[in-house]
Design brief:
84% of the residues lie in helices and 0% in strands. The chain is mainly α. The longest helix has 71 residues. It is rod-shaped.
């Protein structure tokens, strides 16, 4: 107990083992001091982060405003897409009507051609039967 490390030396059995324990304790004290300074720095950073994030005109408020603007833009885009969808539906309906109309026009054209040729035939027939339509022929004996 009267040695350099006192009772610790007698418990551990040698001065080298006692010195290892005291050196470890000194290292732990240094480590605790560093951890304390690190904890103070982290606390300071947390305070600054809180101020940066949650202060008036901070990042959180700006993010909230940006999200509101994005929401408005998305609503506008959705509205535009709905209008475009309605226009496409109308275009498809108009296209179908035009297709039917062109088929009807082809049928109508054939009917008109038939009616015109019948009218021409009738006019030709009337012209043959009409006495003044011919050039008068005088037959001399």
């Amino acid at each position: 107990m009267t040695g350099e490390y006192g009772m610790l030396e007698s418990i551990l059995g040698s001065p080298e083992k006692a010195r290892a324990v005291t050196d470890s304790l000194d290292g732990i004290r240094v480590l605790i001091g560093r951890l304390d300074s690190l904890a103070l720095k982290v606390d300071g950073m947390a305070v600054k982060a809180d101020q940066w994030l949650f202060a008036p005109d901070g990042v959180a408020e700006q993010t909230h405003e940006s999200l509101a603007q994005i929401r408005l833009m998305l609503n506008d885009a959705q509205s535009s897409l709905k209008k475009a969808d309605a226009m496409m539906t109308n275009a498809v309906a108009i296209s179908a009507d035009v297709k039917e109309g062109t088929q009807d026009i082809a049928t109508l054209r054939a009917e008109i051609d038939d009616a015109v040729s019948k009218a021409n035939a009738l006019v030709n027939k009337i012209n043959k039967m009409w006495p003044f339509a011919r050039e008068p022929e005088v037959k001399l004996p």
